[in-house]
Design goal:
about 675 residues; alpha/beta; Rossmann fold; 4 domains; 8-stranded mixed sheet; 4-stranded antiparallel sheet; 24 helices; elongated; disordered C terminus; binds adenosine-5'-triphosphate
Amino acid sequence: MSLSYYLNKIRGSSTEATPTQAHGHVASSVGLRSDFSTILGFLHNSYVGSSLKLLVLGSIVETGRRLFRWLIDRFGIQYCTTIRFSQGDPAYEWIVLFLVRLFVLFANTTVATNSLVLQTQENVWRRSREFTVSASNSRRKWAVRAASDATVKANAEYVPTYQQPQLFRWRGYWVEIKRTGNVNNVDSVSPYGFAGHYPGHGSSIYITIYTLDMNVLSELVEEARLRYLEVNRPNVVIYLTDSPQFGPSQVWATVKHKMRRPLNSIILPEGVVDSLVADAQEFLSTENWYIEAGIPHRRGYLLYGPPGTGKTSTIYALAGALNLEIYSLSLASNFVDDSYLQRAASAIPKHGLFLIEDIDCAFPPREDDEDEEELIALQMAGGRRRAPRHGARTTRSMVTLSGLLNVIDGVGSEEGKLFFATTNHIDRLDGALLRPGRIDRRVQYELATPPQAHALFNRFFPTARFPDPVLIPTVEPIFVPIQPVIISTAAPTAPVELDAEKISQQVLDGPPLLTAVPALEDASLEATRPPIAALADTFAAAVPSGEFSTAELQGYLQGHKTRPAAAVRGVRAWVASVRAERAESERRKEERRAKTEQRKATLAAAAGGPGLGLQGRTGGLPVEPLSAAAVPVPVAADEASAASVNGVKGAHVNGNVEKSASNGVVNNNTE
Ligand SMILES: Nc1ncnc2c1ncn2[C@@H]1O[C@H](COP(=O)(O)OP(=O)(O)OP(=O)(O)O)[C@@H](O)[C@H]1O
């Protein structure tokens, strides 16, 4: 086909010549001159001309761009600054919250306090046309609100998932945001709702600001941080460790937000909580003193005592009161070893509260657990492995005592970090851990005392919600004895003094509640109840001292949320049933212990008689002494004695008298 044919086609020649016709035409034309004019005509065609212009323009732009880049690289010219936020770092949370439209709980506060930021966020996220919808849950607090109507129930969250860089204006500067991370993993969702970008190596956010002024950058980060604090004011932020899925440097990958708990909701002997708060407050405000005195600016606290007595709750309430973020780690996690612990501790920012729960699991177990472990070792040697008894501590922490001590010594030596540890078994702890400088204060928690039961009852049934009823006689005074009837409406006549305590006792002593018709029975019981104060006294007197944890009492009262009189009426039966349960559980434990002993003896006999040591009987299975014993840590005589006497009320430790929290005094090693 000839060129003229196609040129004609492009020109839109009305005479549609076939290739053969065109060939004949060319053959009969004047040749070259005609072709040249055809090419000129081709160039004048609007499509081709425009394309060529674009081609030239594009080349110029690209050359210019390359020249610009070359100049920038050659002379090191800066025109923008880029910062990277990696998941697992607290700053990542600040920036995510800064970028994501505030949702659910705090929307109103935000509009009022930071409309500029909110506007920016809306602009950024509104462009997203790709969302992951997920049912609201407590981990994801922020996402895009689907409906503009604030009254719409927030049962679903619409989480932007786009990956493309987004450009927006912030305080007059152009800012570009970009995210990286594997988009395929949609199961993993950040606490703030970035769905689908949390793969093996985590997600990063890059923010590029088109300015040379570094201050703008730090202002943006500071604004993000302040905003984060503002939004989280009603919350305590708790960072938790996760299996190291986000890479070795990202240890605090999970974030939880708990509503702040008022200090006065912690029911402990008077002065204990206040004293702890004052101590921590003083520590945080005396950094210079520590520097001048050459003492590492760190402070360690150990809260110990039975489960459910309020150790963790105290720490959360304290962190809320002092605006501290909690970095909580469990030594029992199977991915936490010495190096992980070290990385976790060093990633805690200044004024962070480092919390290690159940710190005893880094130490050798008690005798009964040892029995269990020895049995398992024997069974493994015999080729029979059975499931460990429920609750038995068969896996010990991978953290060694020396690793733990190194971390505690290093925790914020200059950074003002608070270290808190909790344990239910202080007797398992090594004296080296308990020495001042590592643990500076110890607080003993005990099972609930009557005053605590009283306070708990009052907390459950505040008089504001359960006003004192007015006691009036209902029958003619001549018919004695007078039966008191209590009504909760305003008194039509002057109230008659009645013995509330006596009536309260009658409530307690009354017949057991019929579970078949509780509603009817409760209604009459509550309608004739005495005032809350009298009921609280009766309740506290009916709870045996030092036998139940506050958590257990709380659990019982929760079953009677709106029925204080029923709570009093049922407390004796509850005490009896818990005692019976415990006795039964103790009996089963004894049985198990006896069986374990028996099996041990049988297996030992089968493995070669009682003369063989465990090492021999396990066929060379390593039976290493565990952390504390394995690590040669010098323990001062007073520390050793401290360890041995801990848990005993009034024990003397390092020359100081340790008193239990229930006595209202907290032991202070350094004072
Ligand atoms: N002294 C207390 N004051 C107020 N609430 C308490 C107290 N003790 C326990 N509770 C309640 O019991 C529950 C468990 O308390 P918490 O977790 O603080 O106990 P714990 O001593 O840390 O237990 P564990 O040793 O098992 O970790 C919480 O809901 C808490 O509100």
